[in-house]
Amino acid sequence: MAIRWGICSAGKISHDFTVALRTLPPEDHQVVAVAARKLEDAQAFAKPHSIPQAYGSYEELSRDPNVDVVYIGVIHPYHLSTCLLFMNAKKNVLCEKPLAMNSREAQQIVASAKKNDVFFMEAVWTRFFPASMEIKRLLAQAELGDVRMVRAEFGWPLMHVPRAVQKELGAGAMLDIGVYCLQFICMVYNGEKPECIQATGVCLDTGVDETVVVTLKFSKNRMAVFTCSSAVKLPNEAVIVGTKGTIQVPPNLWCPTSLVVNGKETEYPVPEPCLPLNFINSTGMCYEAEEVRQCLLKGLKESAGMTHADSLMLAEVEDEVRRQVGVVYSQDHQ
């Protein structure tokens, strides 16, 4: 039986997610409704995607009995309110990253999912790429020996994009793109919390971080370093170094289509899109969508690949990085 999706927000990422869903069998995934703050925006979104129902409010989508799970693609200052809206309506939720503005909001979202007994996952799509699954397999089999160092970087020129600059839109390199580097490191170290976090960075006049460099120390003297920047394009690679070998993730680490394991490269191409995409390799969001389907079929309330605890730890580390760099959002005072 098909999982019936509702799409919350008619923006760019929602478009790409809907295109990704169309790479999957229609007997497994169907988009039955889309909601935007204006009805005409929802209708304009629905047309190219052949979505039968368009709503001019998120509340209407939350009341639609034909929707099994809602994909939330609004910008992150609105993640808390939209997650709570759908969870209180007993809808399962896949919410875009970063999950929230801070760890307090993340805790509220997770608590609401548990209280309402619904499935919830932060949409860290990278975790479900075939390349990422292969990394986890290699690590589980200790192919690299003892992992001692992880390095990741994500830099992209975004100074022309309002949501990357304006604080009220949740701007900041750490939350927007640094989360990809951090989640990668946490995946490699199996969800373990770092013992020590040292961060330094450069902030814009708007009070948000433009470039951040973070050093993390884990138990048993294992280290990690990541750099994120919304000002310049970085090599956008990652590397995992162990006592017996190395895994390199060529560009782009947030949507990896190849791995180099001890010098040998293997490719993992993503599906071809049926419509133009806004972002690179977005059809790779099909992997997280299928993970949601598998969890719902099994009656699970969270995914083992991206647990509630994983989301809460990301938020906690992000909070500490922002504290050290000096980035404070209005949500931090509430």
Looking at this protein, list some descriptive labels.
single chain; 334 residues; alpha/beta; eight-stranded mixed sheet; six-stranded parallel sheet; 9 helices; 24% strand; globular
What would you note in describing this structure?
The chain has helices spanning 12-21, 39-49, 58-62, 79-88, 103-116, 130-140, 173-188, 285-297, 308-325; strands at 3-8, 29-35, 53-55, 69-72, 92-96, 120-123, 147-155, 196-203, 209-218, 222-229, 238-242, 246-249, 258-261, 264-267. It is α/β, with parallel strands linked by helices. An 8-stranded mixed sheet has the order 8-9-10-7-11-12-13-14, covered by helices on one side. The chain has a 6-stranded parallel sheet with strand order 3-2-1-4-5-6, sandwiched between helices. Strand 8 (196-203) and strand 9 (209-218) form a beta hairpin. The longest helix is centred in the C-terminal third of the chain and has 18 residues, at 308-325. The model has no long low-confidence stretch (mean pLDDT 98).
Structure at a glance:
The radius of gyration is 19 Å and the shape is globular. It is α/β, with parallel strands linked by helices and 334 residues long. It has helices spanning 12-21, 39-49, 58-62, 79-88, 103-116, 130-140, 173-188, 285-297, 308-325, and strands at 3-8, 29-35, 53-55, 69-72, 92-96, 120-123, 147-155, 196-203, 209-218, 222-229, 238-242, 246-249, 258-261, 264-267.
